[in-house]
Amino acid sequence: MSLLRVADAFPIEGSAVSCEKLGNGHINRTYLVTSSTERRYVLQGINTGVFKDVDVLMNNIFAVTRYLSGAGANTLRFLTTREGQKYLSCEEGVFRLYEYVEGMSLEKASSPRELNICGRAFGGFQKLLGGFDADQLGETIPRFHDTVKRVNDLVAAAEKDVRGRLKTVREEYDFYISRRRNASIMLDMQAAGQLRTRVTHNDTKLNNVLLDANTLAPVCVIDLDTIMPGLAGNDFGDCIRSGATTGAEDEPDLSKVSLDLEMYRAFAGGFLSACAGELTQAEIDTLPWGAYLMTYECGARFLTDYLSGDVYFATAYPEHNLVRCRTQMKLVKDTEDNFDKIRGIICEEAANI
Ligand code: ADP
Ligand code: GN1
Ligand code: MG
Question: 274-278: long-range contacts (C-beta < 8 A, 24 or more apart)?
Fold first, then answer.
């Protein structure tokens, strides 16, 4: 079956006439489908290596989008198949389809204003999810942000060293291992009941929010695959990781990659103002750690994948995961060097709301 016929298995307007690749996600296969009546849809091939239980995944997504639209938020609109299923399983893979949303997603922020707007989008999303009943949700990727487990996975990948790459990445490996004591900071606080377990997005990468191309107004938070119980600091953190930086996630020239504190402040201001009243003081205090740990964890995951033979993240060339791992190292170092300043930024921005 061609991808056009896959799209036709959903009750789109007219029939599918074109299908082209969309966006730069690292996990799913995403296509823009246009119908004979010029309606646009997103067809996504779900990565079933990553999301092993597609029923849990799609039940979560339908529950969350129903809740968000009931709360008046602009959210993704998924269609069930002509047979009433939440996804289609066929020879080409496992697919879902939802309406295309007009908007742009940024691979890199070019101004503090853009990041402030993304902060408002993700902060507002956090606030909205504050009222969502976590019991309705299954875990789509178990222990997704368990940073301790992520470091253990790195060690296991180094022990296996399936591609014989470890000898070439000793410095990177030692960098992550030497910082492993930090991995449990937020998890320990959570276990001690000091941080609330709430429903979070868990993949608040910059390109997972759509903005109006003209006004830059936030249009819609996308990539809802990992909405599950989690910590507010991680949702704050992943957008800092991907947005408050002077270089792309895969910039090979590290002299172009550094943590941008002006961008950091802009994001923090937007995020905190949009979720005002929702976060506890303890959660606000851990935001700098959330950003540190998301960067550290993501870098460790890239290195793990490099050692494992690039089986998880989409890559365009053999060293891609290694290049990504190095940009995250640079950002981790910059965060360490500026930690006091960052704490000051969070205090000031929290006091301003
Ligand atoms: P992945 O899990 O692979 O990251 P995403 O759901 O984030 O998949 O989609 C990949 C990219 O496709 C996004 O970063 C965005 O650029 C684009 N995209 C996804 N959904 C839409 C949509 N409804 N409207 C416009 N662009 C979209
Ligand atoms: C993946 O799906 P995407 O590209 O938005 C990953 C995130 C990583 C990110 C790094 C489900 O995000 O956890 O932080 O790549 N998503 C999943 O770029 O693993
Ligand atoms: Mg994405």
Answer: 274/119, 274/120, 274/121, 274/122, 274/123, 274/124, 274/126, 274/127, 275/123, 275/124, 275/126, 275/127, 275/130, 275/232, 276/127, 276/353, 277/127, 278/126, 278/127, 278/130
Pocket, ligand 1, Cβ cutoff 6 A = 22-28, 30, 42, 76, 100-101, 103, 105, 207-208, 210, 222-223, 225
Q: How far apart are CA 10 and CA 351, in angstroms?
A: 49
pLDDT digits (tens, 9 = 90+) for 118-173: 999 999 999 999 989 888 999 999 999 999 999 999 999 999 999 999 999 999 99
CA nearest 157: which of 171, 169, 139, 143? 169
Structure-block tokens of residue 298? 């993501």
**What's the 104 CA to ligand 1 centre distance in angstroms?**
10
* Alpha-carbon gap, residue 172 to 185, rounded angstroms: 22
Among candidate residues 263, 261, 271, 273, the one with its CA nearest the CA of residue 339 = 261
What are 128's two structure tokens? 């909205």
298 found inside a domain: yes
Assigned domain for 107 exists: no
**Domain end residue (candidates: 99, 124, 154):** 99
User: What's the burial of 334, exposed, middle or buried (CB within 10 Å: 0-12/13-18/19+)?
Assistant: buried
Question: Taking 80 as the threshold, does the pLDDT of residue 1 lie above it?
Answer: no
How far, in Å, is the centroid of ligand 2 from the Cα of 37?
33
Q: E-strand spans in 158-248?
A: 198-200, 209-211, 218-221, 228-230
Same domain, 250 and 345: yes
Q: Which residues constitute the domain of residue 264?
A: 112-351
Secondary structure E strands in 100-213 = 198-200, 209-211
